[in-house]
Specification:
- With 220 residues, the protein is of the alpha+beta class.
- It has one domain: Sandwich (Jelly Rolls).
- 14% of the residues lie in helices and 29% in strands.
- It contains two helices and 13 strands.
- The strands form three sheets. It has a seven-stranded antiparallel beta sheet with strand order 1-2-11-8-13-6-3, covered by helices on one side.
- It is globular.
- The termini are far apart.
- It binds 2-oxoglutaric acid and fe (ii) ion.
- The site of fe (ii) ion (FE2) has 3 residues, from loops.
- GO terms for molecular function: broad specificity oxidative DNA demethylase activity; ferrous iron binding; oxidative RNA demethylase activity.
- This is Alpha-ketoglutarate-dependent dioxygenase AlkB.
- One of its GO terms (cellular component) is cytoplasm.
């Protein structure tokens, strides 16, 4: 086993292998299970073209649906999504500091939404940009469970050039700065055993933390 090296995949896009220890992975798995019990369950997102995403998703703070955020999960059960917890803000700040260093402005990072995606062995995610946010703050991505191929492209087109990165359990990937609005996707999940030590028997969890830049109507 060779230690995997941290890598700057594109300007502002940093991969830090094995960043999450067992305790945090376990806490995240437990928390994701609890969030999936309500107020809004995991759902396969319906796309405007009639398709359905293969991943199962639940959101915190703000609910994402193609292609906007709202406080209530209008395409699921209409409930207001669970609050975005303070400890995830702190984790997001630590992640930015890890990726970009001490003077990265991580202290001002205040993610207010998380998209939690569960991939079974056949799930994937097409090339897309995270662009419903009204903030240019970085996206912090945490992976737990089965490895996957994460395809990180460019800001101009869905196509090449791109770099394929294997994301494994515990890996951190941050994309900000010139890479914030780059295309990316998950062409495949690699056969694996989940992460039994973290309490995930199979599949892959990915959690992205983001700043929406949104405020509730009437609150400023
Ligand atoms: O699963 C991943 O690693 C990426 C997820 C993603 O791109 C998204 O939720 O927008
Ligand atoms: Fe994304």
């Amino acid at each position: 086993m060779f230690p995997r090296e941290r890598a700057v995949v594109a300007p502002g896009a940093v991969h830090v292998p094995g960043w999450l220890g067992t305790e945090l992975r376990r806490r995240l798995v437990d928390s994701c299970r609890a969030w999936g019990r309500g107020p809004v369950p995991f759902r396969q997102t319906a796309l405007p073209g009639g398709g359905v995403m293969s991943v199962r998703t639940v959101c915190l703070g703000w609910h994402w649906q193609p292609y906007r955020y709202s406080r209530t999960a209008d395409d699921v059960n209409g409930a207001r999504v669970a609050a975005f917890p303070r400890w995830l803000v702190a984790l997001g700040r630590r992640a930015l500091e890890e990726a970009y260093g001490e003077d990265s402005g991580a202290g001002g990072y205040t993610p207010d939404t998380a998209l939690i995606n569960f991939y079974d062995a056949d799930a994937r995610m097409g090339m897309h940009r995270d662009r419903e946010e009204r903030s240019t703050a970085p996206v912090v991505s945490l992976s737990i469970g089965d490895p996957c191929v994460f395809r990180f492209g460019n800001t101009g087109t869905r196509g090449r050039p791109w770099t394929d990165v294997e994301l494994r359990s515990g890996d951190l990937f941050v994309f900000g700065g010139p890479s914030r609005f780059a295309y990316h996707g998950v062409p495949r999940v690699l056969a694996g055993t989940g992460d039994p030590a973290a309490g995930l028997a199979s599949g892959r969890l990915n959690i992205t933390l983001r700043e929406t830049g949104l405020t509730d109507p009437g609150t400023g």
